[in-house]
TrEMBL record:
One of its GO terms (molecular function) is structural constituent of ribosome. GO terms for biological process: translation. Gene3D superfamilies: Zn-binding ribosomal proteins. InterPro entries: Ribosomal_eS27, Ribosomal_eS27_Zn-bd_dom_sf, Ribosomal_zn-bd. The gene is rps27e. Its cofactor is Zn(2+). Part of the 30S ribosomal subunit. Transmembrane segments: none annotated. Belongs to the eukaryotic ribosomal protein eS27 family. This is Small ribosomal subunit protein eS27. Zn(2+) binds at C20, C23, C39, C42.
Length: 68
């Protein structure tokens, strides 16, 4: 996903709807999660926290929608 140039600064934090590749369940994750978010069904870690923006683990989950 490319970062768009915005004239008006806005918070970059978002919620994403991701699909767990292990079991196919939908999970909602925060883009700046400060803790590892796990799949609610199988417990697979979907998001890796960093100092800032959390990383969605591409081999474990897939972003299907952006919320808010
Ligand atoms: Zn799962």
């Amino acid at each position: 996903m490319r970062k768009r140039k915005l004239l008006i600064p806005q918070p970059r934090s978002r919620f994403y709807k991701v699909i767990c590749k292990t079991c196919g369940a939908e999970n909602v994750v925060f883009s700046h999660a400060s803790f590892p978010t796990r799949c609610k069904v199988c417990g697979t870690q979907l998001v890796k926290p960093t100092g800032g923006r959390a990383l969605v683990l591409k081999d474990k989950s897939e972003i299907v929608a952006e919320l808010g």
